[in-house]
Amino acid sequence: MASDTDALAFDVFSRQCPSRSTLEHATGRWGSLTLGALYEESLRFNELRRRVDGVSEKMLSQTLHALERDGLVLREAQPVNPPRVDYELTPLGREVAGRLLGLIHLVEGRMDDVLAARTRYDEARGGR
Question: Has residue 2 got a pLDDT over 70?
């Protein structure tokens, strides 16, 4: 028997669609950087915070909670003293992160074009 959600057609452009918040979590500044950082290996919270330069403890914590709730990140608490918590991508998280990394690499590889476009834009508007 099909559930109610099986019949839904998800549409990220619709305000009520739950896919919109997941997209925001994954593609926001901290979400995309967190997913990208976890792509190669699982990391502890402070390792992740160092890798994602500039993220506050609070923002990283909120980001990880949102990504865990969406099923993209797995939080694994180790039963040791002192406590150890590792974060890693779920299979869905790896798929999403892989696509994000493609975009990240594209942007990084085309930064000369972006910087040239910014210069042209600023010059056409009297500089910045």
Answer: no
Residues 6+ apart with CB under 8 A from 56: none
Hey, what amino acid is at 70?
Answer: D
Quick one: DSSP state of residue 82? S
Helices (runs of H) and strands (runs of E) counted in the chain: 6, 3
Q: Cα(116)–Cα(124) distance, rounded to whole angstroms?
A: 12
100-117 average pLDDT score: 97
Q: How many whole angstroms separate alpha carbon 117 and alpha carbon 123?
A: 10
Average pLDDT over all residues of the chain = 92
**Angle 29-38/18-27 helices, nearest 10 degrees?**
70
Which residues make Cβ contacts (< 8 Å) with residue 50, sequence separation at least 6? Answer: none
Strand partners, 88: 74
Q: What is the pLDDT of residue 120?
A: 96
> Which tokens in the block code for residue 48?
């992740």
